[in-house]
UniProtKB/TrEMBL annotation:
Homodimer. Residues 29-340 form the Aminoacyl-transfer RNA synthetases class-II family profile domain. The keyword Oxidoreductase does not apply. L-histidine binds at E82, G83, T84, R112, Q126, E130, R258, Y262, Y263. The lineage of its organism: Bacteria, Pseudomonadati, Pseudomonadota, Alphaproteobacteria, Rhodospirillales. This is Histidine--tRNA ligase. NCBIfam families: hisS. It holds the Pfam family tRNA-synt_His. It catalyses: tRNA(His) + L-histidine + ATP = L-histidyl-tRNA(His) + AMP + diphosphate + H(+). The gene is hisS. It is found in: Cytoplasm.
Amino acid sequence: MAQLQPVRGTHDLLPEDARRHRHVAETARLIAGRYGFEGMATPIFEFVDVFARTVGETSDIVSKEMYVFTDRGGETLALRPEGTAGVVRALISNSLTQSLPFKAFYYGPMFRYERPQKGRLRQFHQIGVELIGPATPLADVEVITAGADILEALGLLDRVLLHINTLGDAESRTAYRAALVEYFSAHKDRLSEDSLARLEKNPLRILDSKDEGDRALVANAPLFGDYLTEAAQTFFKAVTDGLTAAGIAFKHDPLLVRGLDYYCHTAFEFVTTDLGAQGTVLAGGRYDGLVEQMGGPATPGVGWAAGVERLAMLATEPPAPPRALALIALGEAAEQAAIPLARSLRRAGIAVDLGYSGNMKKRLARANKINARFAVILGDDELAQGVAQWRDLDEGAQGPVPLSELVGYARAAFRE
């Protein structure tokens, strides 16, 4: 019988990996909380229209990468490929558009049928924030600054560069879209199949194509900056001025786009060169038309998402878990006495490793393997005297401690 393996594009989060993931998620949650973003969670599967209508039917995510299935009730469902659509759906479903601004932080698994490679999996995890309600440039600055502070807390800010662009307002986009259609229509014979499909529905997405032939055409395409209204230019300047005031370095990247019509004004990515082709570690933008497109009232919004796997690979080493106390109980009576003792120690906030078998030598070898700080040795002789032997595993010193005082003694020893 063949040995079972994880599905291609998935991986097991073994304790060390899980510790790094937890460090990223908890650091992000802490920093986001300082900005007023409260944690929330949405289901990992939704009706397929939640994503088809919001991510875009012509996008690679929907057309090629989304996991879609029919359940036993005949409903067509999809595993979530990203987090924003679910948050906005929850906002509308729970009538939260009446109490804005809405500030959300999320963390959880996402699913896309992609070609697995470094930093890209079919089941992956994201953190993200959404700020829904404010239409002002200050909201964009707040969201970007929160992302920068999270990257800084993870030791990454000096290894990334913020790329930022403006997608303009509706008037700007309409004019630019027309210019793109005119330009690319004159070169249909050189466009990739995917870009031909996008030409009428989503021409801005051609600017983001990875096809070499498309890239050559994009190099000479009209620039968005030539079609911006004065209002759009003013908005973008307010955002960049705010980032400068916050001390966040950035690069204006005119080819940074978001193809769907509900995106507007600010688009941004924090990019690193340390991960090869998968250099974007945190990306987002303003989506003032999304809530309305999903059936809610016209409501502005801005947010970002970041891949936890990529951040975990880059982040500084997380703090080591607290060193434990090894409780070595030798003999049946000692093992029974160790059960309530271990629980009392754990209730006092001390990590306790309770060995299950083996002689003294093997138990001490395990204590050293797990890097325990102290050992408490309990046998028949110690029970008869009402004491336990306390051993400092770093210094080698050992001596008796009354059982009635052991919890307090251990608490004081771990504080030193």
